[in-house]
Specification:
By secondary structure, the protein is of the alpha/beta class. Strands 1, 2, 3, 4, 5, 6 and 7 form a 7-stranded mixed sheet that branches. The radius of gyration is 42 Å and the shape is flat. Bound molecules: adenosine-5'-diphosphate. The site of adenosine-5'-diphosphate has 21 residues, from helix 10 and helix 12.
């Protein structure tokens, strides 16, 4: 029976809703059939049986539609409409209304709607059911004569009991089915989860094995290639061998990236903070990268803050990995120019340093639209241009992930075709605050044929044992150590190693970690056990393909004396063995050639202390030299186009020149904003002196300056553009506000930007223009000129709006404008007013200033000659004022 029901429910469908619907129909079919049979025993058999027969018909049609045609949606809709709107109300009237079992069926109707519909359909049918239920109740209440009574008390009780039993059974069955379904799904989900975990484990194992398998042959390639480099006689062979070396290193880097990727994927990547020496970290990175950077004939500038603490706490290995990635990219994507590594620190709490490291290049840069996908896995941007540069698109994705695991921040500022700056910010506890002092990066760089290899020692009296199951690996190590004249014995397994060591003592043992039979760790334990009696303790170095970030520490913790990752690097092999050998066995040791070190010295740029925030604006903010110099504000120019050529505002032309030029009849001057590219160059320059740039731009709807500035800033994570909402004196006032905040010690970009966005709403900027041209229609402008009418302009929502007119002589009109604007003195903040003018005489300036002070006794009056841009756009004779309005009668206090 159970199997049959299962077959019916599941045949031809895997859709849960369809299965549920089928179950509802089957239950409804049984219940209806039983109800018809039961109804035959009641007095009112026919009246009651008609709606039930109809219901049976509807159920059969719905069953046909869903089983034959799989049109569950349609069947469910049909069932809902017919049963809820027609059959249930009919049953209600034919079975005595509230006295019989009909109300219980209504409950079933509502349940059906909740189970079968979602979203809008659910809402619709719910309202329909409520309307039908309420409607039938009201009709029955008002017209009791419409109800067909069930007969006697027995029938009423009987009908009610039957309805409760049937509905209860039906609901129970449906719930039972649902719970079973849920259980089934849960088991399935758990099974799938297990399978996924299993798959992920085998994927990780696959990656690890693959890495090991690939490392072994690369070990041979790199090792033997190194022998070719050491011994090669011709330049051509050396060149080829160098190419082999580079290609093998690339392959290795790729394997490491893939391993990291798989760790990140499976959430196994962890950060291990340990105390590390800051100087050593930078030394190693510079050592590693300088060859690569110099190979491309690029300059490498290194600028490390000499006050950085000497010991910090962090994941040194991962920090190195991040910096190597960034510097490798900088070298890869730069064809000419330089790569610069800068580091500086700032104590943010006691014993907590904010370490800021930036890697900049003068390379190809990154397009603004590509910045978003820069950190995506396997994503290589600008493929057409970068097709010749090797890469997997994993480096930056892994880097970003590592930075976020360290709770750090990685940002990029870039100008397409000009270069990029990647900035890493990490907070690191300080272990030893003693400054690292000046770092001198003058190392040798040698890539010439013949002088490739530099032997470091010779020890013919020393004897070492090399243990590896792979014959080629043994050969590689032996060849790499040939020049050192060490006596080398070989063993092919852990067991053989133990045997050999019983017979002879060694000055060092090089032990492969992964061997069939006894592996490296087991062999190490056995050696130590064997040595317990003799009191001997041979230094043992592990040779391993486990070259992950923390593997070295792991092996040292186990008890190895040294660690050497495969593929074996000849120089490192010598260096590590040298550390293990007793000094008396060293026949001689080679020192670094100091003169040679000088020869390829890296130019070190003098450290310039970068500011935290640089305030920039447009020259139209009309700030005088005094303020620009005092607050070190950077100004972006605009172009003034005249018949005699194009000039840059303030730099190449001043307002007096322009006034003289415009005095000639027919002379005109037009203003044009700097281009996006010019803004980019402006920001790039500003960022060489500051960590962040806040550019306070002229009003968004006056000219193109704001749009261009905004577009240029998209390529920089550290440039923030603010629409000042004002021009000239209003914009200038906002800039001064920002400068004052900085001066008062506020160093948060977010806080300053937030404040500026608030203050700009308080600034009131207005002007009296000598002509309405450009702001009204030509006819109106001519009419104004004829009647000596001058427009009063007001800044509102980043636009200039005409707010009135003055008339008569310009000087008198200006005074009237001042009085009109300053008449509500109790709403004006009296601390500062910024006035601009073009072409006013000294007497006029004095008179206007007096007029202003007569209306409102401002504490500070800043009066400046407007920029050339302002004079060109609005004409000679322009007068304007900007001040702050009070908030609820109070002066705004943050910027003071
Ligand atoms: P890849 O292996 O391709 O170098 P990365 O994840 O390191 O992968 O970098 C992703 C993409 O970002 C690169 O393909 C390159 O287009 C771009 N990129 C990274 N660093 C720089 C840089 N310093 N200058 C220009 N483009 C860069």
């Amino acid at each position: 029976m159970r199997e049959k029901l299962k077959k019916i429910l599941y045949s031809g469908t895997s859709d849960l809703r369809e299965q549920l619907f089928r179950l509802i129909l089957i239950v409804a079919l049984i219940v209806t059939a039983l109800a018809i049979v039961a109804g035959l025993f009641l007095q009112n058999a026919t009246a009651n049986t008609i709606p039930l027969a109809c219901l049976l018909g509807v159920i059969l049609v719905a069953l046909l539609v869903t089983f034959r045609y799989h049109k569950t949606d349609f069947a469910a809709l049909l069932f809902a409409v017919v049963v809820i709107c027609w059959i249930f109300p009919l049953m209600f009237f034919s079975s005595g209304g509230v006295e019989g079992g009909a109300p219980v069926w209504y409950v079933l109707g509502l349940l059906y709607i909740f189970m079968m519909f979602r979203g809008k359909k659910l809402v619709f049918f719910l309202w329909l059911a409520i309307a039908a239920d309420v409607g039938t109740y009201i009709i029955a209440y008002r017209n009791p004569e419409m109800l067909i009574s069930l007969g006697g008390k027995t029938e009423v009780y009987y009908d009610s009991l039957f309805a409760i039993l049937m509905v209860g059974m039906a609901v129970g069955l449906i719930m039972w089915f649902q719970i079973r379904l849920y259980e089934k799904e849960r088991v399935l989900t758990l099974q799938q989860k297990d399978e996924i975990e299993q798959m992920s484990k085998s994927k990780d194992a696959f990656f690890t094995n693959m890495s090991h398998e690939i490392r072994t042959p690369i070990n041979t390639i790199i090792g033997l290639n190194e022998m070719i480099l050491r011994e090669s006689v011709t330049d051509e062979v050396t060149e080829n061998a160098l190419h082999v070396k580079n290609a093998s290193k690339m392959l290795l880097a790729l394997i490491n990236d893939i391993l990291d990727f798989s760790q990140i994927e499976s959430d196994r990547m962890t950060i291990v903070p340990v105390p590390y020496r800051t100087k050593e970290l930078f030394d190693e990175i510079v050592d590693l990268l300088q060859i690569r950077i110099k190979e491309k004939n690029l300059d490498f500038f290194v600028d490390i803050d000499s006050t950085l603490p000497s010991v910090l706490v962090g994941d040194e290995v991962r920090i190195k990995q991040i910096l190597i990635n960034l510097l490798t990219n900088a070298a890869k994507y730069t064809q000419k120019g330089s790569v610069t590594l800068q580091a500086q620190g700032e104590m943010i709490e006691q014993n907590m340093l904010r370490l800021t490291i930036s890697v900049s290049d003068t390379g190809i840069g990154i397009k603004k639209e590509d910045l978003e996908s820069l950190y995506d896995y396997f994503k290589r941007i600008d493929r057409a241009r970068n097709r010749k540069i090797e890469g997997s698109g994993l480096g930056l994705a892994i880097t970003k992930q590592l930075v976020s695991l360290m709770d750090g921040k990685l940002t990029v500022d870039s100008i397409y075709t000009k270069g990029s700056i990647f900035t890493l910010i990490l907070e690191q506890p300080v272990e030893d605050a003693k400054p690292i002092g000046k770092m001198d990066y003058r190392r040798k760089l040698k890539q010439k044929a013949g002088s490739y290899y530099k032997q470091t020692f010779e020890a013919p009296a020393a004897r070492i044992l090399v243990v590896d199951d792979n014959e080629t690996n043994l050969m590689v190590v032996e060849k790499l150590l040939r020049a050192t004249k060490l006596r080398i014995d070989k063993a092919r397994s852990g067991e053989e190693c133990l045997e050999v060591m019983k017979k002879r003592t060694y000055h060092a043992v090089l032990l492969d970690s992964m061997m069939p039979g006894m592996n490296g760790m087991e062999t190490l334990k056995a050696i130590r056990f064997q040595e317990n009696d003799s009191g001997q303790r041979t230094p043992i170095m592990v040779l391993t393909a486990d070259a992950g970030a923390h593997d070295e520490q792991r092996y040292l913790d186990i008890g190895f004396d040294a660690y050497l990752p495969k593929p074996v690097d000849g120089a490192r092999l010598e260096a590590e063995i040298l550390k293990l050998l007793p000094t008396e066995l060293l026949e001689y040791q080679f020192q670094q050639d100091a003169a040679e070190a000088e020869e390829t010295a890296i130019r070190k740029i003098l450290r310039r202390k970068r500011k935290k925030i640089q305030i920039c604006t447009d020259c139209v903010s009309d700030l005088s030299k005094k303020y620009v110099e005092r607050y070190d504000v950077k100004m972006m120019y605009q172009y003034i186009e005249t018949d005699q050529g194009t000039f840059r505002d303030t730099l190449e032309i001043d307002t007096d020149n322009l006034a003289r030029y415009l005095a000639h009849p027919g002379h005109r001057a037009l203003v044009r904003s700097a281009s996006v590219e010019e803004y980019e160059a402006f920001y790039a320059e500003a960022l060489t002196e500051a960590e962040n740039v806040i550019h306070i731009s002229m009003a968004a709807h006056v000219g193109d300056a704001y749009q261009n500035a905004l577009q240029a800033a998209q390529g920089f994570d550290h440039v923030h553009v603010i629409d000042s909402g004002h021009i000239t004196c209003g914009e200038g006032l906002l800039v001064l506000g920002a400068c004052r905040m900085l001066e008062n010690g506020c160093h948060s970009v977010e806080e300053i930007c937030q404040e500026l966005n608030f203050i700009k709403g308080l600034i009131q900027t207005s002007f009296l223009f000598p002509s309405a041209e450009g702001y009204t229609g030509r006819g109106v402008a001519a009419f104004c000129r004829y009647l000596d009418l001058y427009p009063i302009m007001h800044m509102r929502q980043s636009s200039l709006k005409v707010s009135g007119f003055e008339f008569g002589k310009l000087e008198n009109a200006t005074k009237r404008y001042i009085r009109r604007k300053l008449r509500r003195k109790d709403q004006i903040d009296k601390r500062v007013v910024f006035i601009i003018h073009t072409g006013c005489t000294v007497e006029q300036q004095r008179a206007f200033a007096e007029e202003v002070l007569k209306c409102v006794p401002f504490e500070i009056v800043i009066m400046e000659k407007a920029s050339v841009s302002c004079a060109s756009s609005n004409g000679i004779g322009t007068f304007g004022m900007a001040y702050l309005s009070k908030i609820n009668g109070q002066e705004y206090s943050k910027t003071d």
